[in-house]
Amino acid sequence: MRIKSKAIVLSTVLALLPAPAFAVSEVAGATLPEQIVQEGTSVEQLAKQAQEVSTQIDMYANDLERYQNMVTNTLNMPAGVYAQIWNPLVGSIQKLTSIYSQAQALGYAGQNIGAQLAQEYQGAGNSIKNLSQVYANWNETTNTDMADALESQHLAAQNFATQDASMQTILNAAKTAQGREQVAAAAVAAANVTTKSIQQLEQITMAGEDARMAYERQMKARENVTGQLAQDGLLSGGSNTILP
Q: What is the four-CA torsion angle of 95, 177, 3, 147, rounded to 10 degrees?
């Protein structure tokens, strides 16, 4: 099963997955220079959001664990106390799934940008030639890491083949303290994967931009040398033409 379906699992605890704020079309519809700027800016902003949400999830998960250690079952929690812990955790999980979805979109957009750069800068080195594949590798690795993180909390893939099945599985798990703790632990693991993966995505994006700028500087330097040689040749040729 694709990881996107698994990511939906976490958001369906109380509500459906919110639509991501970022769309690939925002990058695809722009010129190449605009795409590069948008990609870098979006990844940087997303990295900050991921770190903030990861911190929130850690905090709420720890609160839930501490309270569960005090009672035999969180079904016995006073409603107000339960809401103060569980509802914010669910809200953070929803934010996390949105961030993860946006990161996936940026990864695929990066593949497109890398392919365009390789086409436009055909004389460039491997840093640009292989950029699209580097993004593709990031997508694949992130998917695998997320799947492993969720499955480490015993969230079996076959239970999340569809959104309806995912909702039912989570609702069933939420009936017990152990089930809720399982969801919280999965959220922490998913947050760690998301934060780390987006940091890696940021590094890939910056490396691609550095390679592009270095290649453009190299081309400009060659143009300057060629222009100077041409100018020197004209001056030399011009001197000969005025000789008697």
A: 120
